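Field guide to reading this record: the first block holds the primary sequence, the second block holds the structure written as discrete tokens, and the final block holds curator observations. Each block starts with its own label. This record concerns Stage II sporulation protein M, catalogued under organism Anaerotignum lactatifermentans.

BLOCK 1 — SEQUENCE
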Amino acid sequence: MFGKTARFFGKHILKLFLLTLGAIVLLTIVFFYYYEQNPAYAIEEIQSFKATTANLITSDNKISFIALFLNNIKAGTFYLLFGFIAPLSVLVTVILTKSLGASLVYSQVENSIPAWKGLLVNVLPHGIFELSAVCLCISVGLYIGTYWFRKNKVYRGKQLIKYTVILYVCLVFPLMLLAALIEAYITPQLGAMFL
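BLOCK 2 — STRUCTURE
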């Protein structure tokens, strides 16, 4: 079961994963430069984002691990489902990178933190795991969402569902858990030490 899932991942998902990851990096750079030229838009974008994620902050102004983890799982599931429905996950990728580019400029403008330092301290420690999980969700969703249009169908629907569940439980869930732990407990400590 796990061997077949690993082969499915290597044969079909890995290329999409790498393409999605590359697109996220490229689009983040594009949005960073856009927002660097228009910092007022970055501030507006992040203030809007903060308003929608206010439930993740506790009364003592800390990130709630449980709320963050559940939010990340919900987002990952939506990315996966958007790919199933249609390649809507491409749109989600644009929205995600737009927010990431805006947050780097926001840190520069509002907190006088150079973008490279904000990326290194505030994003990468948890972002490596979270973006890997997000890219995996988007990739699986895109593969399955476009699978039905192919002439050579080597998998039945049940197999695809089984592979998706195994990848989600064995990779996405642990990556999101690790990302939430780091973002809630380690990233704030790193920020206090280095920013």
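BLOCK 3 — OBSERVATIONS
The chain has a mean pLDDT of 92.
The CA atoms of residues 29 and 101 lie 7 Å apart.
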